Sequence to fold (679 residues):
Amino acid sequence: MSNQIDPNIIDRVSELKKALHYHNHRYYILDDPEISDAEYDRMMKELMNIESDWPDLSSPDSPTRRVGSPPVSGLETITRSVPMLSLDNGFDDGDILEFDRRIKKNLDIKEVFYTVEPKLDGLAVDIAYEKGKMTTASTRGDGITGELITENVRTIGSVPLVLLEKEDVKIPDILEVRGEVFIGMEGFSRLNEKRLEKNLPPFANPRNAAAGSLRQLDSRVTAKRPLEVYLYGTGRISDTGPDVKLKSQKETLLWLESIGFRINPLNRYCIGIVDVLEYYRELNEKRPRLPYDIDGMVIKVDDVSFQERLGMKSRSPKWAIAYKFAAVQETTRLVDIEIQVGRTGALTPVAHLEPVNVGGVMVSRATLHNEDEILRKDIRIGDVVLVQRAGDVIPEVVKVIESKRDGKEKIFDMPDRCPICNSEVYRVSGEAVTRCVNAACPAQIKESIRHFASKGAFDIDGMGAKIVDQMVDKELLNSYADIFQLKQADLEGLDRMGPKSAANLIAAIEKSKTLSLASFIYALGIRHVGENVASLLTGHFTNMDMLFSANREELEAVEGIGPEIAVSILNFFRKEENQKAVRDIEKSGVSVLAPDRSEPKTNKLEAKTFVLTGTLSSMTRSEAKKLIEQAGGKVTGSLSKKTSYLIAGKNPGSKLGKAEKLGVEIIDEQAFDSLVNIK
Ligand code: IVH
Fold:
């Protein structure tokens, strides 16, 4: 800092910052301002003036940062050590009662207490604080890796830049909080009015508006959007001090509120599942009058030690569920039915509708699922139909309004030939799906190749749907491996493809050849094997050959992989053409990056499984995990008799007691250090 700055100015800056943070909290969090807006603006203006004269006095936690900063060229990513999870959905009381039954059975108890929270329809964010000051904010992304949106989140008034320090509350040095960023109804209409005035297209719904605003490259644009936030949980967190234990979701929410975060006042502690179901009806009834969109409520087992005992599935906790509200419905005319052919050759009838606004979203197509559904609902071309949309799910036709028929409606017949390649179609008995017999059907090839080249798979930049369609139509591509034989001259003949873009695409294809094993597996489009499952597989099978020869037992031994996924993988690799396809790809010069864990530096921890609890002082959990995996060991989330060691850091959780009971060896950080001994 420059020596010439008058100490009075330094004092004034810290006074202004403190006052502005305080009034910000009163205004946004407590809804109880003490001063007028004009007074607040005056202080803000004064601080901005000083900071512009003395740039050294400006800091990231300054309230002036809420106005945003100049654009960045792209969003960087961040990797988290505590993943952001997703939620299973329930759609009726039966689903929720079943959820409750399962929990009681697993925990062997008679009654479970839950914390219930309205499920806002916005975007999940993770906001990190160090020593009480906000440092980064990120989107959920795939749970582990998210996009950094720090400057954008700083502009949200209800996000504290500095946490409230009180005598009795110790703010942890490291704190990640999680919540939902959203735009309320009123903010949404104002925003759209302004856009229409400026001849900009309006946002389809508040969720899209929130997503678009958060992923802006210019945070000054974000600052003008009416974003709000409600926090609902924590991620990575260090020592909270002896007075704070966070043993339950309820305590966590209260504590978050006490250090300055905005918590939804409609969160409710429920004594047993009957209480939960009652609250569902109450919320559903309130829903049309709420100032924001909710699409359901989140039910969470309150007790943290119970949460730990229940553990999680591949990407969602077993201790929480989202109970969705009924979807929004509208009527419109069905003008035609088209058949789409998917990656697996399935023929899906799709309804073309007269465009209609369903709960804020324009809908012009809806899935009819399959032939049986059309027959069951007696859907005819020209019918007036009831359409519904539920969250992000593809819109669907619920039923026909028969009273609107005038006799001119046409009955739809499922074609007996594939509309794309004219091959025969068939239905396996007992299945509702009609499939094209031709594995070389261009529609199947197109869909498979689109998937193969997509992000998360081979990620070939510039190989979008239109390009793939042309390549297949011109018979440049017949299989995955053909992609790697493409020459620049082949591409130059395609529509809208000059020499430069052709060269770029060839370069992108070359670049895509180096990828992780997980991306390779995902690219194959095996049913039920998404990115997450692919990555789980690579924790156990470290090359394609191992996966080829895995049997059902070995597959099901992978945590997060059940019988359905295992059978689908087996069926895939059993087929000779699939084996050949993989071999051909390998022969094209594809090089698979070995994940760190796939090549143990030593194998001294082979067959040893570890569970972590508490905070380690010299490394993060993901660093510890890496060390263990490099030595050939494995880290799991929950304890069992088979666990080899529990590593107990500072403030260990309930796992400590459980390990004692199970007779699992408990080691501290030092003992762990000497065990791995690779530093
Ligand atoms: S908890 C522990 N709580 O729902 C499980 N999620 O499908 C992690 N959401 O990505 C989520 N309100 O965007 C949780 N009170 C709430 C929520 C909530 C909205 C969203 C969130 C998440 C998605 C999960």
Observations:
- Residues 85-87, 117, 119-120, 124, 140, 180, 232-233, 298, 317, 320, 322 surround 2-(butylsulfanyl)adenosine (CB under 6 Å).
- The first helix runs from residue 7 to 29.
- Residues 609-676 form a domain with the Rossmann fold fold (CATH 3.40.50.10190).
